[in-house]
Amino acid sequence: MEKFMLIIREDLAKMRKMTDEERFANIPMMLKWVDSLIETDNYIKGEPLLTKGRYVSKDQILSDGPFIEAREGISGYEIIWAENLEQAAAIAQTCPLVQRGLAVREVRPIATIYGVNNE
């Protein structure tokens, strides 16, 4: 099994207009989905992210990041186990936010650096 990060990407303009209550209204269906990943031993961890943050470069820290000039931004993630990229993508496609057209998922393999992130 390999580790993959499922990155949740959502429309930032919509997200900025939502209250936290509206934004997190989908949490119950997401928790049910996570429970199904736990039952199949695919789930490792994940969390939603707030829209505030900082965009950091070598020379400056900008206070209106992390989504400067972006239409789409990262609103959360999960780390999962999957046999390969195809299985990880198939799992990502079952996400309720994806199924309802509210978000897209970027699926990325996590590199193993021996002696650093082995579990």
Question: How is this structure best described in words?
Answer:
With 119 residues, this protein is α+β, with helices and mostly antiparallel strands. The protein has a 4-stranded antiparallel β-sheet with strand order 2-5-1-6. The chain has a two-stranded antiparallel ribbon with strand order 3-4. It has one domain: Alpha-Beta Plaits. It is globular and about 40 Å long. A hairpin with a 4-residue loop joins β3 and β4. The chain is built from 5 helices and 6 strands. The mean pLDDT is 86.
Write a brief caption for the model:
This protein has 119 residues and is of the alpha+beta class. It has a single domain (2-109), classed as Alpha-Beta Plaits (2-Layer Sandwich), CATH 3.30.70.
Which features characterize this protein?
single chain, 119 residues, alpha+beta, Alpha-Beta Plaits, 4-stranded antiparallel beta sheet, globular
Distance between the termini: 12 Å
CATH topology description: Alpha-Beta Plaits
Biggest sheet statistics: 4 strands, antiparallel
Number of domains: 1
The CATH superfamily is known as Dimeric alpha+beta barrel
CATH class placement: Alpha Beta
Overall morphology: globular
- As a whole number of angstroms, the C-alpha radius of gyration is 16 Å
Q: What spatial order of strands do you see in the largest sheet?
A: 2-5-1-6
Uncertain stretches of 5 or more adjacent residues: none
Number of strands: 6
What is the second-level CATH architecture?
Answer: 2-Layer Sandwich
Q: With helices defined by DSSP (H or I, 4 residues minimum), what is the helix count?
A: 5
Estimated structural class: alpha+beta
The H-and-E topology, N to C, reads as EHHHEEEEHHE
Average pLDDT over all residues: 86
* Assembly annotation: single chain
Estimate the strand proportion. 25-35%
Share of helix among residues? Answer: 25-40%
